[in-house]
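pipeline: protein-struct stage 2 | run 1193 | MoaD/ThiS family protein
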Amino acid sequence: MVTIIVPMVWTADGTTRFQTAAGPLAEVIRRFAAERPDCRDRVLGPDGEPLMYVNVCVDDELVPRDRRAGTVVADGSTVTLIAPMAGG
């Protein structure tokens, strides 16, 4: 299993940790969205593809956007989804 960590504000009950099956990163994110429909719009676009502006870390290492398609998440790994930030 893979642990998914999301910001507390993404869920109504404040839950931040979830479990899903291992696999290609995009599939892990899609599976998480299917299991947690309340988070779907935060991680997937209308086309069902993971949003590229959400930062993704696997085991505390930021996965660059150009490497996400080839990233496979192993059992026991942790995927952290980080909300985009704006500032000025």
